Amino acid sequence: MIPTRSSISDEFKWKLRDIYASDSDWEADFTRVKGELSGLVGMRGTLGKGAENLLSCLRLRDEISIIVGRLYSYAHMKSHEDMADPVYQSLSSRATTLSVEAGAAASFITPEMIAIPDDTLNRFTDSANEGEAGGSFNDYRFTIREIIRRKAHILSEPEEALLAASGDMATAPDTAFSMLTNADMKFPTIKDEDGKSVELTEERYMKLVSSGCRDVRRSAFEALYETYKKNNNTLGATFGGMLKASRFYAGARRYGSDLEAELNGPNIPISVYSNLIATIEDNLSPLHRYMALRKRVLGLHELHMYDIYNPLVENPYRDIPWRTAKEMTIEALAPLGPDYMAAFTKGMESGWIDVYANKGKRGGAYSWGSYGTHPYILLNYDGELSDVMTLAHEMGHSMHSHYSTSNQPYPTSEYTIFCAEVASTTNEELMLDFMLSRAEGERRIYLLNQRLERIRATVYRQTMFASFERDVHERAQRGENTTASELGKLWHELNVRYFGPEMTVDDLIGYEWSRVPHFYNPFYVYQYATGYSAAASLARQITADGAPARERYIKFLSSGGSDYPIELLKAAGVDMSQKRPILDVIDLFTGTLNEMESLILKG
Ligand SMILES: [Zn+2]
């Protein structure tokens, strides 16, 4: 039974009143910011005329943006407490409209700044530093450096207007994909472990394909991919539309390739991307060995694509009370030092976290917040080991926000996605290390298997996705065949290569590419693999080197978005343009596999 929200004690709920003590305070801010929008619009056409103008415009934009962020996050988090509550549905949609309006009101700023010659921009920042503009451009140095860097790919005003107007059309392939796969596609009914009929859905698939019963795994796999196979032509068309949109924008903005266009946002060198793929593809043999071990432990004559997800030993971690989960994370993350842990513990005890599920509450988990307020975490804690890992993960994001908003001015407080998953995964790695340090026998084998699965799913699998994306976008750019059947062939070959000779690669896996929603957000998934590699390396450095490594790490968290991700990570102690961090994660995988082999073969 899921409890009602009012029956849950306040100590397990987040304190959104730290943002607004009452809804009328929210209304007051809403009215205030609405009024300020016209002031911002009134600055249109003045930015090139003097440093003073530019500085006060950027300041007003940020002031508005901070309040809009606060209004938006408060309204949405309130509505996530009970999705059916019409009061906060209404507040959420008003906040969404307001944020669109604020975006529109500020839309002249970037084009106007781009129109200012580099010399003038540099002179503005220099003169302002001498105090002439009644303030300092220091907080905006990075913003201005970014404007200058991106100039080459910004078009004339009418061209930009056309591109902006094309945006809705360009998302049509993604929308059609979501509608088809979430609403229209129906999967067959299969038998579960108890012989009961269950209608397959994407949400139920993972549990069914991880079943200890092979018939259940196989029928889930076949039912899922037979359904994708039936929709292959349509899914080929939506994927093709995504490729065309990606090509259109990369070409219009004069990028050499789709990949270059996507990586230019956070200024990630292409070499980081190709280095990841090359290093992983040169080191696939540990994954092949892992598949051989699975085949042997499961006692299978043939290892199939539906024999990957079932755990090799029973889950020995069940019903972990919330208090134990907190104690575990506090002990496990202790290597991050007293400063981190003091803020961490205080956060957990002072209303950052909404712990349990209640009727109407949003599912899943996230960390969120806005500048000037503490971070918030939504959980649906249910006592599983994965729930404890989720707590460590989301607290990683929240602590990143805590450090970055406490140390950075607003313009450089936001960190990139490339860095975000490093902070969360470092915590998960430290959790696993800690648990392994005190686990023996079956528990140890279970945790080792968890680590292998994490690296397989996050590093190997996402790199395979990244490799596929690069290949397919290049083919499209060369005008070569990217029909559904060609994509299926390519995907099948990749699976043969990645899983190695012990795997019987089923024909149906050739439809898996058509199922991945992330492909509609091109060149995104590689960040899971780089993020994991960086995190694994940093966690190891923090454990092995102590104070100097954790000081570098805290500095990284405190840096927010004040420099490019690759530079920030380099300073933290991991250079993602080099092979080393990728090789380290492969070593971690190999070491884990060696131990698991010897424990299992001994046992
Ligand atoms: Zn995350």
Summarize the structure.
With 603 residues, the protein is mainly α.
Overview of the structural elements:
The protein is an all-alpha fold. Among the domains are: about 150 residues, Butyryl-CoA Dehydrogenase, subunit A, domain 3, CATH 1.20.140; about 250 residues, Neurolysin, domain 3, CATH 1.10.1370.20. It contains 24 helices and seven strands. The strands form three sheets. Strands 4-6-5 form a three-stranded mixed beta sheet. A two-stranded antiparallel ribbon has the order 1-2. Strands 3-7 form a two-stranded parallel sheet. Strand 5 and strand 6 form a beta hairpin. Helix 22 packs antiparallel against helix 23.
Describe the SSE topology.
Elements: H1 23-41, H2 51-81, H3 86-105, H4 109-115, H5 118-129, H6 141-150, H7 157-170, H8 172-184, E1 189-191, E2 197-199, H9 202-209, H10 214-230, H11 232-252, H12 258-264, H13 270-281, H14 285-298, E3 303-304, H15 322-332, H16 338-349, E4 353-354, E5 366-368, E6 376-378, H17 385-407, H18 417-437, H19 441-477, H20 484-499, E7 503-504, H21 526-545, H22 547-558, H23 565-572, H24 580-602
Parallel strand pairs: 3-7, 4-6
Antiparallel strand pairs: 1-2, 5-6
Helix pairs in contact: 1-2, 1-3, 2-3, 8-11, 9-10, 11-12, 11-19, 13-19, 14-24, 15-18, 17-18, 18-21, 19-20, 19-21, 19-24, 21-22, 21-24, 22-23
The protein binds zinc ion (ZN).
